[in-house]
Amino acid sequence: MDKIPKVSIGLPVLNGEQFLEEAIDSILTQTFNDFELIISDNASTDRTGEICRYYQSRDRRIRYRRNETNLGGANNANLTFLLSQGKYFRWAAYDDICSPQLLEKCVEVLDSDPSVVLTYGQTIKINDLGEIIGGTFSPLGESNSPHERFLEIANRDHQCEVIYGLYRSDILRLTSLQKNYTDSDRTLLCELGLYGKFYQIQEPLFRKRYHLKNQYHDWRTRMAWFDDRFIGKIVFPNWIQIYNFFVIINRSPLTIKEKLLCYFNVIGPILFRNSRELLRDLKFMIVMAFHSDAWRKKRYAETKGW
After folding, report:
1. I need a labelling partner for 125 at 20 to 30 A (CA). Which of 53, 94, 254, 261 fits?
2. Are the beta carbons of 209 and 97 closer than 8 angstroms?
3. Residues 145, 203: contact at Cβ < 8 Å?
4. What are the phi and psi torsion angles at 76 (to 5°)?
5. Are 149 and 197 in contact (CB under 8 A)?
6. The pTM is what?
């Protein structure tokens, strides 16, 4: 591209041929067109590379790279941001659909309100056929108080769809990005909430697709999506997240009072809310410890979605 675009979009993908073309088309037809699309192919073995090279040859806004080996899901997503140049940044998924005005509406919000670090539209849930199966319309992270935003975002009553909103790149660079453990996208959102407010645009601008390949039922075996070296290992994703909550609070620019209130949220309501999953981590440790390495690997392989 001849100049640095205002918006960068990062699209990490692994074997996404089924939905990838529809996702890219929805990005390229945005009414706001001052953007770059960075596609990072995580060593796909299907037609993903062929599809990406075809689109790259048609549109000079697209930058395509292929990893020689699978870097892990979160690492590949982070890479698209590290390669970006824009003032604003958005992650895209290979199986989701953006409404044509999504970027335009989000850019308007960030341009007009410097207190907002992340903006997003209402989400519509679709299935593998593109049929509507639900919607999520509740705003998130809009309080003026950092510790209130932190507690709300940490709550697991939402599925982190706002991770696909539009960020201020300079703020996102201050964070730890996504780490290699289950639900680290929620931790990233919590960290962003310590720097500023979120804003929901009251229009359905994003269609999130739910299908067999992107759903999981076990936090511990899901760790293999982040790094295949976790396969068969005893892991503690919920405890890792609690630890990282303390880390992001400590490294934030908050006042001492706000930090103390955030710490209290972790050792109080967050620990209480997540106590069942924290205990499941310990139960998983005991079960795995009494079985062979081969049994452990089979246990991971039988879990859907990673």
Report:
1. 53
2. yes
3. no
4. -70, -40
5. yes
6. 0.95
Please, which residues bridge with residue 166 across strands? 90, 119
Q: Tell me, what's the pLDDT at 134?
A: 92
Q: What is the pLDDT of residues 26-44, one digit of tens each?
A: 999 999 999 999 999 999 9
Three-state SS annotation for 56-93: HHHCCCEEEEECCCCCCHHHHHHHHHHCCCCCEEEECC
C-alpha span between 70 and 231 (Å, rounded): 14
The angle at the Cα of 49, spanning 228 to 104, to the nearest 5 degrees, equals 95
Dist CA 265 CA 248 (whole Å): 13
Q: What are phi and psi of 140, to 5 degrees?
A: -140, 135
| Token output for 168 | 């201020």
Spatial distance between the Cα atoms of 253 and 233, rounded to a whole number of angstroms = 36
The amino acid sitting at 105 is K
Report whether pLDDT(304) > 80. Answer: no
Please name the residue that has the structure tokens 């079960």. 287
The residue among 254, 275, 136, 146 whose CA lies nearest residue 206 is 136
